[in-house]
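S.,

Sequence below, as promised.
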Amino acid sequence: MKEAVPSPFSRCGMLWCFQQLSHEEFQTFKHLLRESKAALRLPQTFTWEDVQNAHAEKLASILHQQCPASLVWATASSILEQMNLSLLTEVAREKMKSLEEKQSQYKIHMMSKFATKLEGQQDLTQLACDILEKEVLAAAFSPELSGFRPHTVVLHGMPSCGEWALARAVQLCWLQGELYQDLFSYVLLLRLGALQPSEESSLAELLCAEWPGAPLPDILAQPELMLLVVDGLDGLADALGEEAEARAGCMCTDWTERVPVWVLLRELLCKALLPKCSLLLTVGDGALPALGPWLQAPRFLWAGQLCAGQLEEQPQTEPGAAEGVSAECAPASQVPGAPQNQALGGQTPATQAIWSLGEWTPARQALWRLGRGLALSRLWLGASEQQRLSADKGAKLVALCRLAAAGLQAGRLELPREMVQARGLSPEHLQDLLGTQVLVPQRSPEGVSTFSFPPGLQPLLTALHFVLDEVEPLRDPDPQLLGVNAQPLDPHCHVDHLLPMVRFLYSLMNEEATQTLETVLGRPLSPRVRWDLQHCVSLLGHRAAAHTDVLEAFYCLFETQNPNFVRSALSGFQELWQTLLLPADLHVVAFCLQHCPHLSKLRLEVRVFYPLDVTNRISRLQKNSVAESWEKLCSMFGTNSELHQLDLSSSILTEGAMKVLCAKLCQATCKIQKLTFKYAQIPLGLNCLWMTLISNHNIKHLDLQGTPLLYEDVQMACEALKHPSCVLESLRLDSCGLTEDCCSLISQVITGSPSLHFLSLAGNNLLAKGLKLLFTSLQASQCCLQRLGLGSCDLQASACQDLTFGLSKNLSLTHLSLSDNKLGSNGMNLLCLSICLPSCPLQRLTLNECDLDETTCGLLAIALQGKSHLTHLSLSVNPLGDGGVTLLCASLKTPCCHLQDLELVRCDLTEACCEKLSCVITENKRLKSLDLGGNALGDAGVLALCKGLRQEHSSLRRLGLEACGLTAECCEALADSQHLTSLNLLHNDLGEAGLKRLCEAFACSTCSLQRLGLCVWQNPAPMQKLLDKLQQLRPQLEMGEDWYTWGQEDRFWWRY
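The prediction came back faster than expected:
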């Protein structure tokens, strides 16, 4: 017969014995233990090196993990007897016996606090299993492969009512012997939700509230055997972050000391108080940022706001249901999974009535199990299914909704008696409500003074408050209740406690819920509510919204389970950027994107797949649910004909995920043209991507920047690119770890792919040998390459000889980027030889950070005076100085110079060169753009430039003056420059007077300005008003800090 799971007291008793030994005695014990290995019957995988290096606690843990407890004690007693220390084992056994008696008393006490029938508690146990598989909970405190065992586990991602239920479920599972029997002798629940952050208490008081008269000195003497399940952290998290500044004088290391609750919580989290005690924290995702800095080596487990894996697995019918009755139309008493536990609210006729508010689908069953349905079950309607409420009960419901909304608006969980009665609830109504647990009395020594709603019910009633005819908040909404700076029913309000209400409000837009609610209430729901809810989401599609706002909107839409409603709300979305961190995020976004018909650009950072080294520790259910949701998401790539760009940058994609993705991309209906995987983690699965390039004739652009590639990957990629069916035009392999060996393969692509026009290899250490192979391939007549990026490739001056030969015979290359390579004068001398040739097709040359100086400017000046076809030249971040620019200006004034765009950012220029540049602006009829940002031009320099800008025949339309040390003195001259269409004035202290003059000029109808680089948010109020007024007068004028990204894809072609 298999031995029962050993008590943690066994390990504790053994540890006590080891701690009584001196260092020499402990080493002797380990030596004798090794000689007794045959008696222990240790497995073959056991390594004695671990024993030799183990301290006392580690050795006790190792022995109990590998051997039955009885065998461990028999062997240890024999060894200690050999050492003449047999008395130690007897003392240890007596201590174990005493502790086990106290544990038994605690278990008896706790079982009496739960419902009297153990069968009724199975729903709590089932709830824990539904949120996380039981084996995941059981392994929460298991050691890593390295031997490290976490003492803090964070279960996150649940609604507040789910947190409480899960905490109780964990405690019950331990009481019933199903969890942590070999780890903890006590599992204590620490409820903090009802406490104010500044309220003073001690750990002893809080624990005694759970177990009055507890022998705390004995229990806390061995904290390593105790697990604290901490609930109610969401309300304290913000206070913990706010009060963190006041650390001085607010320390606590004594469990009997009374301190503010936030201090007590902080000391527990950072292990200043009971450092050896284990913590299991149940918390919502919103509280993680505030709690994170205080946690010591935590392990995070996601519980989720819905159990996505069960959405597909749950059968529609259950054994035992009436024949022919499906789960989705069964009454509550027959619905599988509907709670019967009185501790959770009970099963009453009122519960059955509320089930009719929504179609019983697997999705809603999952929501029930995680707390949503818990709130619904407690809504007291007092009517049978599909039956209209009486006038009396209807009035009761309206009053109850008003009460819930008033409390939520004030942020109150406990409602004074006066507030309850002021909402039209008579004593008789109150008695009825108390009898059905809709209102819970909070008793004090003086009697009942306040009331509270059960978890989750208050936001639901507040949602009903908005849809009843008697309440019309849309006419004069309260911004504190309905969100700030937004529509009245904005789901993206910044008050966290309102978010559950908003989600419930959206859930009432479910078609079945709407129909049934209208029947029960006997009145139609306001169509304005539906329109407002859709409009709130649609607004996010027309402006730059935060990722968290869009994700919360998607969660709200998921609540509706109404495809028509979702499609209408998302019809205006054309671009979307979203980060998916949780399996629930993936499931919700997959649902919403199925109904987003006009999406053309989609960027997703997918972080829900796990690396291979942790896959075995993830539950099977969670892995399956992620895979199913990912397949559902990928299916829309073949159904949305308007989706042309897919960006999965910074995603973590497993081999299986890539196979699913590529299978969908290979469909004939997939219209995606641009694929981006910047800095994605794809350790396996690239093979199917290369095959996709052959199968899908719509994919023209592929970006793998920052994604490590092996030689074998490059080999397969090049074979695909040379395939006649591959039509890829653009390939970016920046910083992919390519070597000179890869250049031989890539050079074959350059000569063998007629469709490839853009290739970027920036950030790869290709060395001289690899670069020579590339430059040689440029000479081939079959080369169709038009754009080549070789920035940061360690291109030395010596390699420019090969580049020159390649350019001299190439007939297609028009764009070349050599930025961040130390070319110097020698390299530029060779490069300029090819630029001067009439046959060289080069038009755009980027030489940023190439160690160029005044001498190289002379070489470039000569090249520009020749028969060069250059139209765009970027020399930024090179120490050219005023002398170098003067040499360039001489060439720019000649009629044979075709330059249209000159970039001279951070080139050590001063006002001394501005007169020369002003002459260029006046005389050069081709120069359209000049960027001088980051140079100390000052007001005097800009005044000189403006002389040229004021000339009627000046062709310059784009001018960059960012961080040039400008003040109000130059604003009058800039205001007269009416021909500019794009101007960058970021990071200049123009002052209120200067900004006022510019705004007056830019507001004129004769002003041609279309884009203005200017900080529009961080200005004093008077300056902000000037900018706001300008925006009103010129709504088509683009203003902001992203001047370099406005329609600059072609100008900065090597970046995009």
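The radius of gyration is 36 Å.

Coffee later?
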